[in-house]
């Protein structure tokens, strides 16, 4: 029996390869919640460590986003099982400064909320924003960013206004200490990449990442930002968006569509997904 698609065109339109420019900023937002931050910093899942396996970690992250936004229900079931296998090992120990568990639905909801904000922000920056009459449809479809893991559908705030309340209240729990900040700063400076990539793209990556960060997170990271940098960043994003709008959908969605193809290939071949 053919599996029905789990999304409609609205969320599908927000899947942009250009959005990868906001990737590190979104990681910072997610890890700004101490339970998530220490869950990643202290993780014993060596195969998923960005600094040891940058290509694999990037692939699995993009694959999750591709499955959550463009995948079928069957794709999601397979990916949920694969991620759960890795998440079993992610839990705090007695020396941990904060308590965390990768199966904590509230922490997963926060991560999903950050992902949603990322999609919303990049849609706004590159495509000019979601039409008001489509905001609710877009928002409801985005619940898959959480329900693809353990977040129950009823946990997703009822509408966009309820989400804004949740987001504002959740900012009270945002706090980046020195340990997590050092880890995130290493990401901002591309310390996981080879020396040539760091030299060529390090400053640019820091500039783009800082521009995508909301001020609260930028301040937590102690990243400076001037009005002149803001104007330069806006001009760059406008130029990138102008190109993205004109690309055929397969090119606009690359590499997310490639990651989804790879997930399905791995499922058929019985290969690990994460």
- Helix content, binned percent: 55-70%
Shape: globular
Count of separate DSSP helical elements: 15
Query: Helix-strand pattern, N to C?
Result: HHHHHHHHHHHHHHH
Q: Which residues sit in consecutive blocks of at least 5 with pLDDT less than 50?
A: 1-9
Radius of gyration from the alpha-carbon trace, in angstroms: 18 Å
Structural class: mainly alpha
Q: Could you give a short account of the major beta sheet? A: none
Number of strands: 0
How large is the share of residues in beta strands? under 5%
Q: Please give the alpha-carbon distance between the first and last residues.
A: 26 Å
Q: How confident overall, as mean pLDDT?
A: 92
């Amino acid at each position: 029996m053919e599996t029905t698609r789990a999304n409609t065109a609205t969320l599908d339109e927000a899947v942009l390869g250009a959005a990868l420019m906001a990737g590190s900023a979104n990681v910072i937002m997610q890890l700004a919640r101490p339970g998530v931050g220490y869950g990643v910093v202290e993780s014993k899942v060596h195969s998923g460590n960005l600094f040891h396996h940058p290509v694999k970690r990037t692939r699995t992250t993009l694959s999750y986003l591709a499955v959550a936004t463009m995948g079928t229900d069957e794709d999601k079931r397979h990916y949920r099982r694969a991620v759960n296998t890795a998440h079993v090992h992610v839990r705090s120990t007695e020396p941990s400064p904060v308590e965390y568990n990768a199966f904590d639905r509230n922490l997963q909801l926060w991560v999903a909320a950050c992902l949603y904000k990322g999609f919303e922000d990049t849609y706004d920056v590159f495509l000019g924003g979601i039409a008001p009459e489509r905001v609710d449809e877009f928002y409801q479809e985005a619940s898959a960013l959480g329900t693809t893991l353990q977040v129950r559908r009823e946990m997703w705030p009822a509408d966009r206004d309820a989400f804004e309340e949740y987001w504002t209240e959740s900012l009270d729990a945002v706090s980046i200490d020195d340990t997590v900040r050092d880890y995130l700063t290493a990401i901002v400076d591309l310390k996981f990449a080879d020396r040539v990539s760091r030299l060529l793209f390090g400053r640019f990556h820091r500039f783009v990442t800082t521009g995508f960060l909301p001020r609260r997170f930028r301040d937590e990271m102690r990243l400076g930002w001037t009005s002149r940098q803001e104007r330069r960043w806006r001009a760059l994003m406008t130029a990138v968006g102008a190109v993205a709008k004109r690309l055929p959908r397969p090119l606009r969605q690359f590499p997310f569509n490639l990651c989804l193809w790879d997930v399905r290939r791995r499922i058929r071949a019985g290969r690990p997904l994460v």
